[in-house]
DNA sequence: CTTCAGACCTGGGCGC
DNA sequence: TGCGCCCAGGTCTGAA
């Protein structure tokens, strides 16, 4: 799925057509995605003005003037595509609805936002604005990796004594929220830390490097519009570009890009997911 | 409490 | 072309 940079790219694409806009019509083309949609979702959205479009971890949050917040998760393959009258934007048009177009939202200004999700691991929900701490999907999330709450000191505290590999720990959204398989691999390579290393056995200095690497790779990916392997699209339908800047992800057998390193990228499977790394420079 | 396999879905790529 | 198999950006759930 979209990890943090892809979700942020989608949020930024939606801001010009959705923030401040009034929802004129909502079409639900099925009962739900990963879970059933909340009761009367279409009616609770219709006629509402979107006050603010936020992001928390991999969730997009739209605060409405009804004091409810619409939560959107893109799952593995979710896309939000803009068409119709969308000033200043490239309009992504479809002659006929795709079989995976599940939710269609029209604004009074004439923009259309289509939630397309082939695998249907995505989700939508409504909850009272400000009640993030009570929402089962949001309450246990760790700090934002690009925010002030995320630091080497925080990591040090949370990783102390843990024997799980650092790869698995960084995928745990309670430790830090927003990383997924790609960016964990990339950040660990940049920090020259092996994905196999026990989380509790990383020095403070190297944790500082890890925090910097995570911030850098996420920032660069956001600037590139995210990474498009197969499913991710910007709201314009355009692909992201960061996949061209991967140093290890999907590059098994390629020479390690670390200057002075003569290693070769390897793929190992950890808890069912591929970890790409350089055994020579990542320790 | 931690850790893990299994589950939810579709589609693309590959070998035969 | 077709078929079977493997893999994929997530993460919840229940069992051990």
Q: Outline of this structure?
A:
Monomer. One of its GO terms (biological process) is base-excision repair. The protein is of the alpha+beta class and 283 residues long.
Features:
single chain, about 280 residues, alpha+beta, N-terminal domain of MutM-like DNA repair proteins, Helicase, Ruva Protein, domain 3, 2 domains, 4-stranded antiparallel beta sheet, 6 helices, about 20% strand, globular, DNA-binding, zinc ion binding, hydrolase, Ribosomal_uS13-like_H2TH, multifunctional enzyme, zinc-finger
Task: Describe this entry's structure for a reader.
With 283 residues, the chain is an alpha+beta fold. It has two domains: 4-134, MutM-like, N-terminal (N-terminal domain of MutM-like DNA repair proteins), CATH 3.20.190.10; 152-277, Orthogonal Bundle (Helicase, Ruva Protein, domain 3), CATH 1.10.8. It has six helices and ten strands, in the order αβαβββββββααααββ. Strand 9 (266-270) and strand 10 form a beta hairpin. Helix 1 (4-18) runs parallel beside helix 6 (204-223), helix 3 (152-159) packs across helix 6 (204-223) and helix 5 packs across helix 6. The protein is globular, with a radius of gyration of 20 Å. It binds a DNA duplex (16 and 16 nucleotides) through helix 5. DNA binds at residues 100, 119, 162. This is Formamidopyrimidine-DNA glycosylase.
The whole-number mean of residue pLDDT values reads 95
At the first level of CATH, the class of the largest domain is Alpha Beta
The assigned structural class equals: alpha+beta
CATH names the topology of the largest domain as: N-terminal domain of MutM-like DNA repair proteins
CATH homology superfamily of the largest domain: MutM-like, N-terminal
The level of helicity is: 10-25%
Task: Compute the number of structural domains.
Answer: 2
Poorly predicted regions: none
Shape: globular
Task: Let me know the largest β-sheet.
Answer: 4 strands, antiparallel
- Going across the biggest sheet, name each strand in turn: 1-6-7-5
The termini sit apart by 28 Å
Cofactor: Zn(2+)
Domain Formamidopyrimidine-DNA glycosylase catalytic: 2-122
Domain FPG-type: 247-283
Keywords: DNA damage, DNA repair, DNA-binding, Glycosidase, Hydrolase, Lyase, Metal-binding, Multifunctional enzyme, Zinc, Zinc-finger
